[in-house]
Design a protein that fits this description.
By secondary structure, the chain is of the alpha+beta class. It has a 6-stranded antiparallel beta sheet with strand order 17-22-18-19-20-21. It is elongated and about 165 Å long.
Amino acid sequence: MNFNFNAKSINLKEKKENLVKKIKNLDIKDKAHKAKNVVIKKKTKVVLGVKNFSPKASFVQCKSKVVNKIRHWSFARFKAELKEKKSAIVVVMTVISLVVSTTVVSATMTASAATADYWDVKVGNKVMAVVKTAEEANNIVNGVKNYYVSEGAEVIAVKVTPTLMATPHAYKKSEKQPKLSNVQEAIDKIIAGKVVKEKYTVQDGDTIWDIAVAKELSIANLSELNEGLDIDNIHPGDVINYNVVTPYVEVTTEQKVQYDQAIPYETVTEENSSMYKGEKNVKTAGENGSRHVTAQVVTKNGTTESSVELESVVTKEATNEVIEEGTKEKPGAVSAAGGSSSSRRAVSYGGGVTYNGSGSSIAAYATQFVGNPYVYGGTSLTNGADCSGFVYRVYNNCGIGIPRTGQGSVGRSVSYSEAKPGDVIIYPGHVSIYIGGGREVHAINESRGIDTTSVGYTGSVLDIRRIVE
């Protein structure tokens, strides 16, 4: 009995232990189930069984996981859990919506970031330059505004018409990027203006010199623009090309400036009975005075529109020039070229002084050396001379002592309409002798040597000096 009882006791003990294990297992499952429900209720880390769900996950990934999970449910289980997890589904749809919205916003931000910022400098609505930084754009605007401001001046006002402005401009990186401008080149371009090609038909009586003056161009400019035309021999009906420059902007500058201004000397004459009639001598050289001026000046593109003198202080008084004029009768005529100059009194040269002689004879003498070489620094009419050396030697060989350089101070100034053969034409860095008919003779350069051309061939005429009359 005891044996059987003990066996039963053992059996019951084992059953009891097994039952406890089952209860524990059920308890574990119940806890797991409860934990799962807690996770679902929190609606954060597990949504429909999809773990590690992140808002950053793409819509496609999210959709794929949800669909795969649903496929593994039986219809009955899906129906049972659908009610249980209804709120979780709402969360999923909300999160999916957020994912889509985030993706759209992200794409928008990416598109916005995929741009490059530049700065346009505009005249009115026309883009004149594109630069990378605001500083460069402002430098161009200020460079144009200050272009006509005198050094040391007090700026009162500057107005640019049409409006000159700098504006930002975003270019997509997928687009062709603009060509960037150099700051100084952009300033020069805006100031220089645009070139418009025009044509002029030569009229009866026109000379190339007249046309050049009227169009404010040099003969050299016209020559370059009309390569197929012999501008030295134009005829009525010939068509001449020329350029007209139209400014992009009008810069009106009002400023207070200070400058030194020359006070011209006056010329007085005295008779000298020991000198022959027609002879002149500078007894006292004239010397300009000077004064310091403060003025309020308005300019448009550098051309003075008005100037109001505010203050003036004389810093140096002018010295009058005194000229002696002969009253003695001449014993005989003197040849202007090639003849004796023994009776011609050697005189000083200066502004306003002219000499007795024949300009036509001087012009005729000068043309004898056409074809001879140009030599820089030379004064030989046969072996070579430069422009001032040529004029110097021609006049000195004709008995008129003029300086080797500074010939713009010899004789007196006359207008082009008054020009006569023998007059000296003054250019920037060049001189020639007028021979009549709108033509001149001069030592041009090494390639052309001494030759005749139309007046203005080497540039704009500054002055015409009458030395003999």
